[in-house]
Amino acid sequence: MLIERKLCQLLAAAVAVGLVAAACGGAGTGGGKKVKPDVSGKIFGGRATRGGVMKMDSIGDVDYMDPAQAYSVQYFNTVGRGTIRTLVSYPNTSDLKQQIKPVPDLATSLGQHNADNTVWTYHLKSGLKYGPALGGVNVPGVTGQPITTADLKYGIERMFNPSVGSGYAAYYDNIKGASSCKAYGCNISGIETPNARTIVFHLTRPTGDWDLRLSMPGASPVPQRYAKKWDQTKDSNYDSHVLAEGPYYVAQYTPGEQIIMKRNPDWDPSTDTIRKAYVDELDWQEGFDNSVCIAKVMSGDFDLTAEDCLPTGPQLQRITTDSALDKRFFNGPQPCTSYVFLNTRIKPFNNLKVRQAVNYVIDKNNLERVSGGPLVGHIASSILPPGMLGYLPTSRYDPFHSTNFSGDVAKAKRLMKEA
């Protein structure tokens, strides 16, 4: 049983930030029930005004600040989106079909590749510069200096350094020479940088999704001359000294309590067609219970909630029935699927027919209802959520079909007997 989660986010009446992740968009229907359309026009449209401080609250924190280590939605959607850049990224749009189409970011275009997708070439835009480091530190010889392809090369090489502990290395192990890169200072021979604005990747096997792989935070540039003092140690602490490349830099970070992001003076908006960067500053306060998190936005103390604060129960009912609050309620697909899994290594779930019986006997319609109904999510029949390549709606894929998704007890009993 799976539920495609929806992002039920409460926003200030006219908030439009431009650093909200592209994954948060779109309206939908679930279980045959009418679902209120989202207000994505207020976020992705042209109604925003520039300036001011946006206040956001959340339950949790980011996992890391180092883009080679960070692997959480909290990081991707806010800190990562606002402070780092990669050769390729994704557009800021509420259109689910467009969200998954990569677009150039640091690069002038998507990758140019040979016939079998084993050689990929990119050229950097001009005017790309590093901003302040975490804490607003202007680093001599780095802040205000150009981002180069040598920095992109090192950004990938450091992912193979055990002191960094990156979870991204497996996506790049098909670069020639990457398999022998196991420590600081290694040279991946399959990454060529013939000049400061050209980078060429030579791969060991055809890789048609190379553009997508280079959109991940771990593929962002890091100048070796700056990061080596931390990457050479047993456990890299670049996490506390990360440089800004996007429209914002992290001015203050108190883990589990607060993140303040301010406008990066070295970011040139003419080089960035993705990030609108409307607000001057983001004040993100963390550590609230879910209900408190929502209540503080309802009262106007904060402008919006992070992805981990979702209105439920009485709060959700009040928001959707109060016309003033309802206008501030953003409801759209979230790149997340919640599901119940069966441990196939233990009895009786090592028996295929038992597993099939469980899938048939569950009343998915009821589980959707107790989870909050179609405003919170709708029934799924596969793991991939809307907005991801390979997504299949229940109308196209429903291997355990039952009327109204309410389960088929008779069929489940027959399967149990066979088991």
Could you walk me through the main structural features you see in this protein, from its secondary elements to its overall organization?
With 419 residues, the protein is α+β, with helices and mostly antiparallel strands. 21% of the residues lie in helices and 17% in strands. The strands form 4 sheets. The chain has a 5-stranded mixed beta sheet, with helices on both faces. It is globular, with a radius of gyration of 23 Å.
The best one-word shape is globular
Structural class: alpha+beta
* Overall mean confidence score, pLDDT: 88
Q: Give the count of helical stretches.
A: 12
What is the string of SSEs from the N terminus onward? EHEHEHEEEHEEHHEEEHEHHEHHEH
User: In terms of per-residue confidence, which ranges show pLDDT below 50 for 5 or more consecutive residues?
Assistant: 12-46
Kindly, what is the distance between the CA atoms of the first and last residues, rounded to a whole number of angstroms? 20 Å
Supply Rg: 23 Å
Tell me which oligomeric state these chains represent. Answer: single chain
* Strand count: 14
Which sheet architecture does the biggest sheet show? 5 strands, mixed
State the share of residues found in helices, binned by percent: 10-25%
- Physical arrangement of strands within the biggest beta sheet: 9-10-11-2-12
Determine the strand fraction and express it as a percent band.
15-25%
